[in-house]
């Protein structure tokens, strides 16, 4: 049985998926890559947009929407290991999903 | 400024201010880094940890600064009159006020740290912990004893939680944090008993200092790339 992912890990996985696609990703691709249910994905996207980690924009053809990695999202990816080590050492983790 | 009437050695007075300043700086560093983590990850618990350590840092800065003023024989009444805009009757009144402020900031800080060690966190339970702690302090017949009782209970709780955490996740980081809080706990017990034996006042400071240094070492290990 695989280990449950913590909230910080899930956020990392989502942002990493966007970065791997060059910083812009379609919702369907993100859902597939992040390995979350549609409902959970929606909740995380809302949170990430609220925290200015990603932005929702209109795609190149002007029809579908895309998610774009914001500078704060890049910062999170860069500092992720330090953040998780700090959080783990002081026992600050949120509930696991 | 001493919370209890302690017969500490004279040579220790200057060291005491230095040690209190180190406590203040170390706790401020932890607070700063926790806030940095909060800025990056927008994680509330990091914010609470930062707020807790900031409160403890302010408490130590107040203590060290006032001790410094007393040592330099500055007219503290005049100082406070200038700061507050109204006259204060005596240095004694000022001492009581400063001791009270120190206690409130310490208790508030450790209340936050106790709260974040809870597995089920609810901000209402934090308000309850804080309100009960401050009320116990304000209405205590002997505020000094109540202060050390509260601090000892909170630090015992925090240390136990971090020991359980170390058992669950046995890493060097979790061990250092557990040991750090454990030493702050042991140091606080010694400081609480210092009125009976003056030597405990010195050893209490040294053990507490070692505890805070361990927390700083953990911080440096984490920050180091």
Would you give an account of this structure?
The complex is a heterodimer of chains A (97) and B (225). With 97 residues, chain A is of the alpha+beta class. Chain A has four helices and three strands. Chain A has helices at residues 7-20, 27-34, 38-50, 71-89; strands at 24-25, 54-58, 65-69. Helices cover 81% and strands 0% of the residues of chain B. Chain B has one domain (12-223): Rhopdopsin 7-helix transmembrane proteins, CATH 1.20.1070. Chain B is mainly alpha-helical and 225 residues long. The radius of gyration of chain B is 18 Å and the shape is globular. Classes of the chains: A alpha+beta (97), B mainly alpha (225). Chain A binds chain B through residues 8, 11, 51, 75-76, 79, 82-83, 85-94, and chain B through 33-34, 37, 40-43, 45-46, 49, 116-117, 161-162, 165, 169, 171, 173-174, 176-177, 218-219, 222-223, 225.
Secondary structural class of chain B: mainly alpha
* Helix-residue proportion of chain A: 55-70%
Main sheet makeup of chain B: none
Q: In sequence order, what are the helices and strands of chain A, one letter per element?
A: HEHHEEH
Highest CATH level, the class of chain B: Mainly Alpha
CATH topology of chain A: Arc Repressor Mutant, subunit A
Quantity of strands of chain B, as a count: 0
Class from helix and strand fractions of chain A = alpha+beta
> How much strand content do the residues of chain B show?
under 5%
CATH architecture of chain A: Orthogonal Bundle
